[in-house]
Amino acid sequence: MICFDKDESRFNFRSVAVIIQNEHILIHRAAGDDFWALPGGRVELFETSDETIKREIIEELGMKIEILRQLWQVENFFEFGSKGYHELANYFLVKFIDQPTIEPEIDFDGIEKSVDLIFRWIPLSALTRYNLKPSFLIGKLTDLPNSIESVKVNERNA
User: Fold this and answer.
1) Alpha carbon distance 44, 23 (integer Å)
2) pTM for this predicted structure
3) Among 15, 25, 64, 71, which is disulfide-ready with 49 (CB 3.0 to 4.6 Å)?
């Protein structure tokens, strides 16, 4: 994975899935975290971002996706634990090849053994009730761009 540490800082290169179905979006969090995020993971060396998101969704949920288009390229600065993070991420609008059943606001577990992830479908209209990171998503997920947008977010010490 493309991730490295320097002193008390970490750099990540991440790929992210925006999965919207029937006016609901799929979010997840690690057990014990107090915030939610969109599914995804770190890019491996010599792997494209779109290959990454396909691999990550299979690893986390056991399902195949189709990439519809890239939405955002995001440079994000934030604190997590005792580290400052500098993250570059590509966000893709995707859809499941086999449509899952949606049970709104009911938690379900991912299948990845090494990570305890909790998933939830939430109505797009409920985004403001969730601590979703990065926070720019709360406004942008209901107004998706028609072409790739570059987004810079600084949530350090926010």
Assistant:
1) 32
2) 0.95
3) 15
